Amino acid sequence: MSLIRSVVLLQVMILFNVMLTAKASTPAMAKPSCPSRCGDVIIPYPFGTRGDCNITERFFITCNTSVTPNKPFLSTSNIEVIDISLEDGQLRILSNSSYDCYNTSGSRRRYYYFLQLGLRGISINNAKNRFTAIGCDTYARVEGFRGQRYATGCLSLCNNITDVSNGSCSGIGCCQTSIPKGVMSYFITLESYDNHTDVLPENPCSYAFVAENDNYTFSSSDIRGFGFQNRKFPVTLDWRIGTTSCDEAKMDATNFGCKENSDCVDSENNSGYFCKCIRGYEGNPYLSNGCQDINECETMSPCNGTATCINLQGTYNCSCPVGYEGDGRKNGTGCSLPYKDQSKRSPLINVALGTSIGLIGLLLGIILLHWMLRRKQISKLREEYFQQNGGILLREQLSKRRGYREDVKIFAAEELEKATNNYHESRILGRGGQGTVYKGILADNRVVAIKKSIIGDPSQVEQFINEITVLYQINHRNVVQLLGCCLETQVPLLVYEYITNGTLFHHLHNDDDASYLPWETRLRIATETAEALSYLHSAASVPIIHRDIKLANILLDDNYIAKVSDFGASRLNPSDQAQITTIVQGTFGYLDPEYMLTSLLTEKSDVYSFGVVLMELLTTQKAVCFKRSEQNRVLAMYFVSLMKENRLLDILDPRVLNDENIGQIKEVAALARRCVRVQGEERPTMKEVAHELAGLQAMPKHPWSESKLIGEEAKYLLGDLNNTYDDGATSSSMGYDSINNKFTFELQGAR
After folding, report:
1. Residue partners of 425: CB distance under 8 A and separation at least 6
2. pTM above 0.85, yes or no
3. What residues are annotated to the active site?
4. Tell me: the pLDDT tens digits for 633-647?
5. Nearest in space to 604 (alpha carbons), one of 523, 549, 529, 666
6. Quick check: 178 and 130 in contact, CB under 8 A?
């Protein structure tokens, strides 16, 4: 009977260990004879609070013992540390917010927060933090250094606190943007357009701060700003040892930071490294004998009931009893007698083995049932998403209408998950205000770009389906082709052709001359882009206004053929309407001033943006540049003012200018000037622009007289833009996208 009890006990232990696995962890350790914590925060070596407890000065932690509990601070600064992690080379700090407040008398009270780490090898993690601004009359900027100067920011507007949505930072009451990699400092500034006059007293203040992604969720009550002036936010920092790569650091064995049983991990920018205990060990990899063997036999119970667990350095072994053979691990074949010895087993052992097999079979059955129920639940959820995102409506429209391309496809969610390796970070092509774009490889080895939006708006499903069916019909060599979509996810996924050679912005504004574009190529790209916009305005079945034409939305293939992309902000323009009233959306520097003032969107808004693109191609200067003087920051204003003064040569890129193409360049400059006229009715149509550029491209090149540069006197964009939008503003696009309902902000900072 005792043997039966033992067998039953073994089966209970097997089931318990399969269903629950406990893993012990060893806390991080300080250097011997050094304090291991400050208040509630563990201080592991290479950090320390006194003497030689830290590896270098930048890892010194000041422990303030005058408060209870004690509080640690980074080096000798006032930056409070709340956690230090050895496993991933990160630490967390508390950061203040900036604020800008007004009252009914018009007086202003503000505080701008400046964070300066000042410690080489310690920087702000851009993947785990983001910049947030709150307010109904707010534009915020965060700037600083990451080895070189950077600046970015966002714009938030609303007419009333009732307009905002909890959890949504899309530009109505709240806006967000990411910060660059490797940032070592940031300075947050705030401004408003009307000193909060129209939103007092509900929103007297604007607030802006950097915080961890998961540590702040916007609430409409935050507009009132209760408690924000004294609120601190957690921020994740990356820290690294030394300034060299692992290979270089290992050459100096005396000062190499990684000790026994540890691995060295390079930082992403090859500046410094951090250490990790190898598999099977835990503890502090920066201390001698700091990585200790994990006793898997005690913490994991990795062997089945008939095998004996033997702990080894960094691993373990499951040994079968004498006379038995097989793999004694829980996921192995189990221990059993050789086949020729099966008959020698006692009946009790046969009963025990039969019971074991039965219990294991029962457990496998439960697991299989759970898996099937889970698959059914996922399938049901995907079907709900498909209907919610308008899948049935899309199928009906595709079946009714003719003329669609044969390769238009509705993709399954599993197909795109597999194509992107489950949306792995290594497949990210870019992030923006509307979502993330991934590189995908389909089952037929086609490479595609998959756009995954951040949020969706169920109220605009019908509009989304109407627009996507029209986008399917676009078939132009200079427009990025929409291949299909997936509606089985929480938000729709759009699948586009993959363009290999990056954006025109990258090629025109790169740091070096590696991809310098000659004038002939620039003129051809301008012509192709104009023809694509002309097609969208006049040749598509339903006219389409792009609404966000800029260098970053013009892609180039391997042959430098232009491809217009990113229709996330586009609007359909019914043929019986000359203009559409809509919330202003676009990118500062490219935005039509008439559209900004009236909210009336017309095809001439795209003409204005294209005119700015022409100016960038002519000058190789950015649409907005804070290195230029205040009155010349906006390229359109600067360009037109120089032309009026007959000083065009002062701004042209000298690399593209020669005696043979001076005539072409002057004609293109005059065309660009006409495109940015303040009144839209005075601008040419995109069809006229495309026709004129095609003619210039085809005509023989010869020098023209300077007198042809200044052709006609009309009303141009010269000085009033700054009266409407402060020069201190960064850049903005605001409002709801009819497809993605997402706020877009982009600032291309001056180099």
Report:
1. none
2. no
3. 548
4. 899 999 999 999 999
5. 549
6. yes
